[in-house]
Amino acid sequence: MTGNTPAVRPARPFFSSGPCAKRPGWTPEALNSALLGRSHRSKPGKAKLKDAIDRTKALLGIPADYRVGIVPASDTGAVEMALWSMLGPRPVDCFAWESFGEDWVTDTVKQLKIKDARVIKAGYGDLPDLTQADPTHDIVFLWNGTTSGVRVPDADWIAKDREGLTICDATSAAFAMDLPWDKLDVTTFSWQKVLGGEAAHGMLVLSPRAVARLESYTPPWPLPKIFRMTKGGKIVDGIFEGETINTPSMLALEDYLDALTWAEGIGGLKGLIARSQANLGVLDRWVRECGWADFLAREQGARSNTSVCLKIVDPWFQGLGEDAQADAAKKIATLLEKEGVALDIAGYRSAPPGLRIWCGATVDKADLEALTPWLDWAWAKVKAA
Question: Which of 24, 175, 254, 377 yields a CA-CA distance of 20 to 30 A from 158?
Fold first, then answer.
């Protein structure tokens, strides 16, 4: 570690965990074909929306009998559509180990007041005991904890012969991790995460079992229009063919289509995962050498390859009070932003003081390699102050 100013700067200092970095080489000209000034319900409008659905399904290897729809309000909207439309007929197991998992606990326990809801929790840096999942219950969980950098390592804990539904928030996992679709009944994600798209649009993936729940169960609470996926006891097919519930941004849609084209051109899902894994490798090597930082995720197999969260383990830092630790971590992020070498890498507000560095596929490995000396530089500055 040195206080000398590093000579090389990241070419693209965009390491935000959402909205995430645009794909390499992106320029506004990528949006020139956007269907602006036209209805999303016009023939070409619906064709573009269906194209996004079909290509998403192909890229992620989603089974043919699963349905994929574009829904309002980003990943949050997609998750809440599922929770408010499907929970109720069975007990629910909610697994939470960071802030967004806690949000779904709030929906399930405090808002919907589901009877026999169990909350299985762990603190930041750990996974809860996933083996407590009851196959007769519905299960609500995240695949990857965006604010903790802790992911589930596999789906072995989910029963193949389960009776309940699995509802998985996969927003910072889709396009970066290999999701086992046979274990997932409802899966959600958003455009602005791993592919670096723009905000406000969510994706909802439903298995045949999830569709059966929608068509056989009517929740006892009122459903707002943007949550309604059935009519007359049957699923509204149009939602999953490009006929969105509300008006989407055709500009954001064009950007997502551009990101899909880029992803297809680098080898599809395997290429995306390889880029994310290589990026994680850069930070893993640096952590082993730096001496002052470590992964917030304690278990190596549970470490995210997208939202990489770091804690500060230096004894000087550990000796500070809680407020002083938060202030020191914030100063590191502020110094790097002021230098223009790393934007938006402060840890999440409710997470332990530290840093959060996005390593998804739209980030270039060379930029992370250029960043690590700057991390040491900023730490040395803060510690010496």
Answer: 175
